[in-house]
Amino acid sequence: MAETCTVVHFSREPSLARIDTIKGSDSPGKISESYHSFGTFYVCCIVLSIFTYLTDLVLAVTLLYHYSNQGYGLYFALTLTFVLLPAICMSTLSLRWYIIDHDDPSVGRASLVHWMIRILFLLLQISPLLRYIETLVYGIRSKLAGNAEIDSQQTILYRRMLDEDTNSSLLRLFHCFLHCAPQAVMQLVFLLSFVMYPDRNYINLNVSIFQAWTVFTSVTSIAWSLTSYHRSVRFARDDKDKIKWIGLLVAFCWQLMSALSRILALSLLAAILPTWMGVICALHWGVMSIWLAIGQHQTAACSSRCEELLLSTALGLAYVLAFISPRDGPTRYVYLVYYLVCFMENTGALVVWCVTNNSTSNPLLYYGAAGSQVLSFVLAIAFLIIYYKYCHPSLSKQTKIPNSHSGYIENDKPCYSKTSYNVRTSS
User: Fold this and answer.
1) What is the pLDDT, as a whole number, of residue 133?
2) Which domain holds residue 42?
3) Which residues cross the membrane (predicted)?
């Protein structure tokens, strides 16, 4: 009698879970590996994530060194705050996930040496780096197991790789909103102050170069963190088609232009009226949190209403910079509302900038800053349309789920829980 097995492909939505019955001659590991792929494209994405993460840290430490040597106490304190706070939050989350994995028998127990390495990275406050390294290690091991035709081990290692990839991408989102976004706004405001008021001697030219590089790398890191997260979610979900390199490139350009326009608008307002910038961000946070709590609370990530409110509050803070959908469903009108609000806020910031400044004193800065903000916002909308019209990966025919209203569900939505493993039972 031939051996058969049942492979349960878990999804973030219970309605999208898939159960396959496979004969003994088939290989669930090979099916998983053929449906997913760990190759040059995957490795390049992880390496780019590591590079952007380390670049952010190196530039932040460099600025701290210069601020300390030159006696800029306020700049030093603000920069240090938004270096340590995100690092502590990420280390705490990463440690919690390690403990959850330790108690999960399907994951397996880590060795003492492995725990010592984890503790070292946690103490150094660079937990995402270890997650990225573990992603590469599990991916290479799954590839070697596949070449050796050890199918069961290949499947387990591949799912572990997807788990670590999703975890690292989620940690980078915290790094993106708690570190990169504040650093980009702060350093750009410091840089604008140096250009607008050179007679006050806020900072010297050498430090301003590092500030400019910090702004550039922070905006780039924000765009790549958001893009990489959507990529990892699609790889982790069996019911989703995987995003191609051209789609990833267009999505990155969309997120880059969107983040740049938002950072420019907030920085221009903060350079003139820093208090009002804080008030507007707080109002934006509150309105978005209430909107999410009332109308966007149907998410599989939360088991109680309290968790939904906490998630709404966290996403509301993220929405100050970028949009992340909390659940599957149509997003056309949601994007329309979000970008309309951002457009009005950005326009208000530009009006304050143009009215307060004099174009004759520094026309390059006056027109360059305003023009860059408008152009980046227009390009963000253009890349958004191009992505969803031409580059968005649609669901495969095998995993399209009928919907009583629209026919099929085709969405690119993130998840907020850790990747589940495929369960294999023999009979």
Assistant:
1) 94
2) 26-238
3) 40-65, 72-100, 112-133, 170-197, 203-224, 245-265, 271-294, 306-324, 336-355, 364-388
